[in-house]
Amino acid sequence: xxxxxxxxxxxSAKKREFINITPQVKLALEKSAFRDGIILVSVTHSNxxxxxxxxxxxxxxxxxxxxxxxxxEREDYKHRGRFESNTGIHLQSLLLHHQVVVPxxxxxxxxxxxxxxLFAELDGQRPKRVVIKAMGE
Amino acid sequence: xxxxxxxxxxxSAKKREFINITPQVKLALEKSAFRDGIILVSVTHSNxxxxxxxxxxxxxxxxxxxxxxxxxEREDYKHRGRFESNTGIHLQSLLLHHQVVVPxxxxxxxxxxxxxxLFAELDGQRPKRVVIKAMGE
Amino acid sequence: xxxxxxxxxxxSAKKREFINITPQVKLALEKSAFRDGIILVSVTHSNxxxxxxxxxxxxxxxxxxxxxxxxxEREDYKHRGRFESNTGIHLQSLLLHHQVVVPxxxxxxxxxxxxxxLFAELDGQRPKRVVIKAMGE
Lengths: 137, 137, 137
Description:
By secondary structure, chain A is an alpha+beta fold. Chain A has a single domain, classed as Jelly Rolls. Chain A is built from three helices and eight strands. Chain A has a five-stranded antiparallel beta sheet, covered by helices on one side. The first copy, chain A, has a three-stranded antiparallel beta sheet with strand order 2-7-4. In chain A, strand 5 (about 100-105) and strand 6 (about 110) form a beta hairpin. Chains in contact: A-B, A-C, B-C. Chains A and B meet through strand 4, helix 2 and strand 5 of A and strand 1, helix 3 and strand 8 of B.
């Protein structure tokens, strides 16, 4: 078994955005030449997330509204942060999670027709790093 | 290190159901003959989930009520879907997640006595595919 | 590729506590001598969780308040449990999840400067077991 790593950088023009990165994950898998294994997609920031979801625009609007409702930005959080008070965004990131692990078989991601790997930018306009690590053979 | 894959199909008679699939995961591990490694359990649908939880019936009723409260089905979501408007179920799936990774050691899953792998059917009566992929030796 | 396992035990003096276990995860990685791979951190209890988060004390207070708000302890849950009624804590554990998978490259965890691996004790004063399993080379 072998390991293949890709590191992607995203800089969103918007504060919030869901970016379908399934093509980049597939490309990493193709470059690895692995046929069977698992691929970890992980963001190295606590104000972003990685999810598996349908990417229909209406659903993504609903999803954005939902995380803001469950984990709102508020003035009275205790976190003063190192640079800013962004507790709401941290909680949204924890709700969605910073990583997924996707199995692949015969060189293809084991995802359904309405499952995509999405990078969830929760506080954009700054570069964000996503690590893709495939393990397989 | 080697890889072993099982694919399961579930078709629940009910719309919603939590099915304890620990026996199937253990069987996959047994068939792999691996003693040490990790096992990924992942569902290829965005209207289902995989969790690790106790399977006490009262708790599962509480869990069902909880996800419906946090991610209710509503008429006013923006998602029109390809076939139907099921945003609430998508959000429930995101809340619970579509996958778990369980370590195993000396041929046994590293789960506590009240931890089980559950397939959460959120919108049943249609076949659902669960991929089990073990990596180990 | 090889596998390395560490098992940690925590016994918190408090009922609830977030413990930064990044040093223990780094130590496991160091002992493995792996340079490239993934490391799974998983708790074998359904009243605890493992997360990746900043560990700023104010943020952790906000996080504790948030999980108690989204998954409150209540008297009217249906779960009677084997020993006690602790549905709220189970739901908090499901919300946060019992595991993370962290990639590592050149012998270092692929975590950002404000990302740490935290053990979330949700119902302490009893020993809890955390399995760390690294796979790599």
